[in-house]
What does this fold into?
Amino acid sequence: MADPSILRRLVRLPSRARGPRKQLPERVLDQVRQQQDATERLIGGVQLAIVVIFAGLYTLAPKTFSAEQTFAPVPFVLAAYFGFTLFRLGLSQRVRLPDWFLYLSIVIDMALLFGLIWSFHLQYDQPAGFYLKAPTLLYVFIFIALRALRFEARFVVVAGLTAAAGWLVLVGYVLLPAGMTMVTRDYVTYITSNEILLGAEFDKIISILVVTAILAAAIVRARALLVSAVAERTAARELSRFFSPEVARRIVEAESLEVGVGESREAAIVTFDLRGFTEIAARCPPDAVMRLLADYQATLVPIVRAHGGSIDKFLGDGILAIFDSLHAPDTYAADAVGCLDAALAAGAAWQSDRQAREVPAPAVNGAVASGTVVFGAVGERDRLEYTVIGDAVNFASKLEKHNAVAGTRGLSGQETVELARGQGYTGTPARRIADADVAGVGGSVDLVALA
It folds into this structure.
């Protein structure tokens, strides 16, 4: 089935009018948080690599300051940054970092970076305007982009605003002591001296803010896609609990599911039923009946899957399983007949084990038929069911009911058994039933009792 109400209940997605924002169940949000936790560890690793690069470049770069200079602040700033990065990386491995800590770490990251840039004029014994020419400012964009990995625009915005504010403070630090005497309007003078060009500094700030805005807008869109993707993946996993994995995959991956569109293929159909279940359901408590059904299904369904089949549907005490040629073109009939043998043996053992229970288990009946079937969606636009139809489905159902007439527990058409033998089936049927009259089937048919 592809009932929209079922899909909405599985992932609790809001309507399109309200968008994908936050009516997601906790299990979906937890998956998003796990991705974000992994992202924080990635961010910490990248920043650790950056500080190592900083240290390597500083170590290899020729020093231009005088030998008499005793204070070199760059190593201290790098050491502080390295220590904080290691602390945050280690903390992210142990716990989920709270939002306030992430905001604080963004501010500390930017403060340490700008502290490193600010220290250049001390390191090289130059006027403060010297550090405004430092290409190290470009690392600001790396730090802002790193925050985009969380797919949360607010952290990018905080990083961008902090960077813009930090650079404005550095420009103010140059201007406050010297006033406008450090300002030039000549670009060549700006490039070749420690004087500053206000337009160039404002361009840097504007560039930081524009990049931040673009990244934030992209993340808002990407976040919606991320939430939608996680929700759909969760829905697909939940759908596989209601439908067979193959049907769930078709529902999730199909571009559209429309009534009137189907695909035909060769398949073997296996049906199961509990003999006398209607009488049991009428006289036993509802909870006991449902426990019986759950126990019965838990016994047979793993056997179906172990033999390569998929469950098409549960119909009360009935089970319809499919073995199609798409997944096992050379063995589908052998798999189906072998499954029925194994399921009837397991059903007999299950019936024996439950004799002392409050609701004794009835006998398990089964049947198998093969032929060309059609897979497709039936119903109407707002209420679909993805199912299989065809003569083989009908014949398997009729054979299952014929067990009561024939006094058997498992039946198959002789042609299906012969097909299964050609595909490698080696079981030993109980007996052959020639010219059987099966209700609903025109003319007599040759059957094989499997158990």
Notes: The first strand starts at residue 262 and ends at 274. The chain has two domains: 4-240, 261-449. The first helix runs from residue 4 to 11.
